[in-house]
């Protein structure tokens, strides 16, 4: 009897937890995209007005973000700094590969970032500024979509997690 | 057979209806339908077993072979 009860509780708790963590991902995504936009804006001003080298500009731009986004920019700066043969795009790709497990970003925004990173450091300042603005506009669109997806999905995943756990427990009893 | 199977069926019914509503609100009507269908199938399995029990009982009571 007790073992049954404990097993049921474990099933319910684990599936509710799964539901909540999936919902949390949807919650985190718009926040991280907003941080990315802020970072890119800051990176733009560091490139255009302060004329810092790319690694340093990335390092400074990362200061206004927190969590995984900050780590992404810092890793990129680190890779550019330490491994001289990598281009900015390759360094960014490498950093994205290292931090993508912690980031809640999906394919579209990752592609926007990779396209932007491939251009960084290969053209002159005003052209880079243009590309940064383009990427910011694209990210703004993705941000709106992410907010719509969040409003739709967060509640659903929470309900689903708990209900599926309860249903499994009933089926197993 | 006791009352517990009835409670089980009732519980599954309630949970399936909640899941159906949650999925429908999130705009996934097809998944909601699929989920309801799955719940219906599970409950149908139980009910069919109960029905077969009922028929064997009737057979043994009236000695129809």
Q: Which SSEs are present, and which pair or pack?
A:
The complex is a heterodimer of chains A (173) and B (65).
Chain A lengths: L1 H47 L5 H8 L6 H15 L5 H12 L7 H13 L5 H48 L1
Helix pairs in contact in A: 1-2, 1-6, 2-3, 3-4, 4-5, 5-6
Chain B lengths: L3 H22 L3 H34 L3
Helix pairs in contact in B: 1-2
Average pLDDT, all residues of chain B: 90
Q: What structural category arises from helix and sheet content of chain B?
A: mainly alpha
For the largest interface, the chains and their residue counts are: A-B, 13 and 16 residues
Helix content of chain A: over 70%
Number of helices of chain A: 6
Helical content band of chain B: over 70%
Can you tell me the overall shape of chain A? Answer: elongated
Low-confidence stretches of chain B: none
Morphology call of chain B? elongated
Which properties best describe this structure?
heterodimer, A: 173 residues, mainly alpha, 83% helix, 0% strand, B: 65 residues, 2 helices, 86% helix, elongated
Characterization of the model:
The complex is a heterodimer of chains A (173) and B (65). With 173 residues, chain A is mainly alpha-helical. Chain A has one domain. Chain A is built from six helices and no strands. Chain A has helices at 2-48, 54-61, 68-82, 88-99, 107-119, 125-172. In chain A, helix 1 (2-48) runs antiparallel to helix 6 and helix 4 runs antiparallel to helix 5 (107-119). Chain A is elongated. The mean pLDDT of chain A is 87. Chain B has 65 residues and is mainly alpha-helical. Chain B contains two helices and no strands. In chain B, helix 1 (4-25) runs antiparallel to helix 2 (29-62). The longest helix of chain B has 34 residues, at 29-62. The radius of gyration of chain B is 17 Å and the shape is elongated. Classes of the chains: A mainly alpha (173), B mainly alpha (65). Chain A binds chain B through residues 152-153, 155-156, 159-160, 163-164, 166-167, 170-171, 173, and chain B through 4, 8, 11-12, 15-16, 18-19, 22-23, 25-28, 39, 42.
